[in-house]
Amino acid sequence: MTAAPAPRLVVHVVGAVRRAGLYRLAQGARIADAVNRAGGATRRADLALVNLAAPVSDGTQVVVPRRAAPSAPTDSGVAGSERGQAASGPVRLNTASLEQLDALPGVGPVTAQKILDYRQQHGAFSSIDDLDEIPGIGPARLEQLREAAAP
Q1: Higher-confidence residue: 86 or 1?
Q2: Beta bridge partners of 17
Q3: Are 70 and 48 in contact (CB under 8 A)?
Q4: Three-point CA angle 65, 38, 71, nearest 5°
Q5: Whether 65 contacts 49, CB under 8 Å
Q6: Residues 104-146: tens digit of each pLDDT
Q7: What is the C-alpha end-to-end distance of the chain, expressed in Å?
Q8: In the 8-state DSSP scheme, what is residue 123?
Q9: 3-state per-residue secondary structure call for 39-56
Q10: For residue 132, how many other CB atoms are within 10 A of its CB?
Q11: Per-residue model confidence as pLDDT tens digits over 8-22
Q12: CA distances in angstroms from 74 to 10, 71, 91, 100, 117, listed in the order given
Protein backbone atom coordinates (compact mmCIF):
# COMPACT_ATOMS: atom_id res chain seq x y z
CA MET A 1 0.00 0.00 0.00
CA THR A 2 1.46 3.39 -0.96
CA ALA A 3 0.99 6.57 1.00
CA ALA A 4 -1.07 9.29 -0.63
CA PRO A 5 0.99 12.30 -1.68
CA ALA A 6 0.86 15.25 0.69
CA PRO A 7 -1.68 17.86 -0.42
CA ARG A 8 -0.15 20.87 -2.17
CA LEU A 9 -1.20 24.50 -2.09
CA VAL A 10 -1.24 26.73 -5.14
CA VAL A 11 -0.38 30.40 -4.58
CA HIS A 12 0.12 33.34 -6.93
CA VAL A 13 3.20 35.41 -6.01
CA VAL A 14 3.38 38.92 -7.52
CA GLY A 15 5.06 42.26 -6.99
CA ALA A 16 8.69 42.87 -6.09
CA VAL A 17 9.91 39.29 -6.54
CA ARG A 18 12.37 37.89 -9.08
CA ARG A 19 9.95 35.45 -10.77
CA ALA A 20 6.26 36.22 -10.25
CA GLY A 21 3.93 33.35 -10.99
CA LEU A 22 1.93 30.39 -9.71
CA TYR A 23 3.71 28.08 -7.28
CA ARG A 24 2.88 24.81 -5.57
CA LEU A 25 3.85 24.65 -1.91
CA ALA A 26 3.54 22.03 0.80
CA GLN A 27 0.70 22.20 3.32
CA GLY A 28 1.80 24.40 6.25
CA ALA A 29 3.96 26.68 4.08
CA ARG A 30 4.49 30.30 5.09
CA ILE A 31 4.57 33.54 3.09
CA ALA A 32 8.38 33.42 3.32
CA ASP A 33 8.34 30.04 1.54
CA ALA A 34 6.22 31.49 -1.27
CA VAL A 35 8.53 34.50 -1.68
CA ASN A 36 11.58 32.23 -1.72
CA ARG A 37 9.94 29.96 -4.29
CA ALA A 38 9.48 33.04 -6.51
CA GLY A 39 13.22 33.64 -6.45
CA GLY A 40 13.19 35.93 -3.43
CA ALA A 41 12.39 39.58 -3.03
CA THR A 42 14.02 42.20 -5.22
CA ARG A 43 16.08 45.05 -3.80
CA ARG A 44 13.06 47.33 -4.23
CA ALA A 45 10.78 45.13 -2.11
CA ASP A 46 9.35 46.51 1.11
CA LEU A 47 9.30 43.36 3.23
CA ALA A 48 8.29 45.37 6.29
CA LEU A 49 4.78 45.41 4.80
CA VAL A 50 4.68 41.62 4.44
CA ASN A 51 4.11 39.19 7.29
CA LEU A 52 6.58 36.52 6.18
CA ALA A 53 5.53 34.25 9.05
CA ALA A 54 1.85 34.10 8.04
CA PRO A 55 0.63 30.71 6.82
CA VAL A 56 -0.30 30.39 3.17
CA SER A 57 -3.70 29.06 2.17
CA ASP A 58 -4.60 27.50 -1.14
CA GLY A 59 -5.62 29.92 -3.87
CA THR A 60 -4.22 33.08 -2.29
CA GLN A 61 -2.22 35.82 -3.92
CA VAL A 62 0.96 36.90 -2.14
CA VAL A 63 1.78 40.53 -2.95
CA VAL A 64 5.27 41.82 -2.22
CA PRO A 65 4.98 45.62 -2.45
CA ARG A 66 7.70 47.89 -3.75
CA ARG A 67 9.21 50.46 -1.44
CA ALA A 68 7.58 53.87 -1.73
CA ALA A 69 9.74 56.82 -2.64
CA PRO A 70 11.25 58.29 0.52
CA SER A 71 9.20 61.13 1.93
CA ALA A 72 10.70 64.54 2.52
CA PRO A 73 11.92 65.20 6.07
CA THR A 74 9.69 67.26 8.34
CA ASP A 75 10.85 70.36 10.22
CA SER A 76 12.35 68.18 12.95
CA GLY A 77 14.45 66.35 10.34
CA VAL A 78 12.55 63.08 10.83
CA ALA A 79 10.57 61.68 7.92
CA GLY A 80 6.82 61.67 8.64
CA SER A 81 6.67 58.86 11.18
CA GLU A 82 5.35 60.76 14.16
CA ARG A 83 1.68 61.00 15.14
CA GLY A 84 1.64 64.72 14.25
CA GLN A 85 2.32 63.98 10.59
CA ALA A 86 -1.21 64.96 9.54
CA ALA A 87 -0.46 68.58 10.44
CA SER A 88 2.47 68.71 7.98
CA GLY A 89 0.88 66.74 5.15
CA PRO A 90 -1.28 63.75 4.33
CA VAL A 91 -0.90 60.47 6.19
CA ARG A 92 0.81 57.93 3.94
CA LEU A 93 -1.40 54.82 3.87
CA ASN A 94 1.48 52.58 2.81
CA THR A 95 3.69 53.45 5.78
CA ALA A 96 1.37 54.79 8.49
CA SER A 97 1.18 53.16 11.90
CA LEU A 98 -2.04 52.17 13.63
CA GLU A 99 -1.90 55.40 15.65
CA GLN A 100 -1.45 57.57 12.56
CA LEU A 101 -4.36 55.88 10.79
CA ASP A 102 -6.51 56.20 13.92
CA ALA A 103 -5.94 59.98 13.82
CA LEU A 104 -7.53 60.28 10.35
CA PRO A 105 -11.03 61.83 10.18
CA GLY A 106 -13.74 59.22 10.62
CA VAL A 107 -11.24 56.43 11.32
CA GLY A 108 -11.15 54.78 14.73
CA PRO A 109 -8.92 51.99 16.01
CA VAL A 110 -11.04 49.22 14.45
CA THR A 111 -11.01 50.76 10.97
CA ALA A 112 -7.32 51.63 11.33
CA GLN A 113 -6.61 47.95 12.02
CA LYS A 114 -8.70 46.97 8.98
CA ILE A 115 -6.54 49.30 6.85
CA LEU A 116 -3.37 47.66 8.20
CA ASP A 117 -4.82 44.19 7.61
CA TYR A 118 -5.78 45.10 4.04
CA ARG A 119 -2.29 46.50 3.39
CA GLN A 120 -0.77 43.29 4.77
CA GLN A 121 -2.94 41.05 2.60
CA HIS A 122 -3.00 43.08 -0.63
CA GLY A 123 0.20 45.10 -0.57
CA ALA A 124 0.66 48.79 -1.11
CA PHE A 125 -2.24 51.12 -1.86
CA SER A 126 -2.03 52.54 -5.37
CA SER A 127 -4.65 55.23 -4.73
CA ILE A 128 -7.02 56.48 -2.05
CA ASP A 129 -9.83 54.74 -3.96
CA ASP A 130 -8.38 51.38 -2.78
CA LEU A 131 -9.84 52.22 0.66
CA ASP A 132 -13.30 51.56 -0.79
CA GLU A 133 -12.45 47.83 -0.59
CA ILE A 134 -12.24 48.00 3.21
CA PRO A 135 -15.44 47.16 5.11
CA GLY A 136 -16.69 50.20 6.99
CA ILE A 137 -15.29 52.76 4.56
CA GLY A 138 -18.03 53.96 2.28
CA PRO A 139 -18.25 56.84 -0.18
CA ALA A 140 -18.76 59.53 2.48
CA ARG A 141 -15.77 58.47 4.58
CA LEU A 142 -13.67 58.03 1.44
CA GLU A 143 -14.34 61.67 0.55
CA GLN A 144 -13.27 62.73 4.07
CA LEU A 145 -10.00 60.86 3.64
CA ARG A 146 -9.06 62.28 0.23
CA GLU A 147 -7.56 65.42 1.78
CA ALA A 148 -6.03 63.76 4.86
CA ALA A 149 -4.39 60.69 3.33
CA ALA A 150 -2.28 59.64 0.37
CA PRO A 151 -1.03 56.26 -0.86
Answers
A1: 1
A2: 41
A3: no
A4: 20
A5: yes
A6: 888 888 888 888 888 888 888 888 888 888 888 888 888 888 8
A7: 56
A8: -
A9: CCECCCECHHHCCCCCEC
A10: 12
A11: 999 999 889 999 999
A12: 44, 9, 13, 15, 27
Cα(44)–Cα(73) distance, integer angstroms: 21
- What's the one-letter identity of residue 124? A
Please report which confidence band the pLDDT of residue 2 belongs to, taking 50, 70 and 90 as the band edges: low
Residue 86, φ and ψ in degrees, nearest 5: -55, -30
DSSP conformation class of 57? -
pTM: 0.48
Q: How far is CA 71 from the centre of its chain?
A: 18
Tens digit of each residue's pLDDT (9 = 90 or more) over 90-102? 888 888 888 888 8
Round to whole Å and give the CA distance between 72 and 75: 10
Which helix (H) or strand (E) element contains residue 147? helix 139-148
Length of the chain: 151
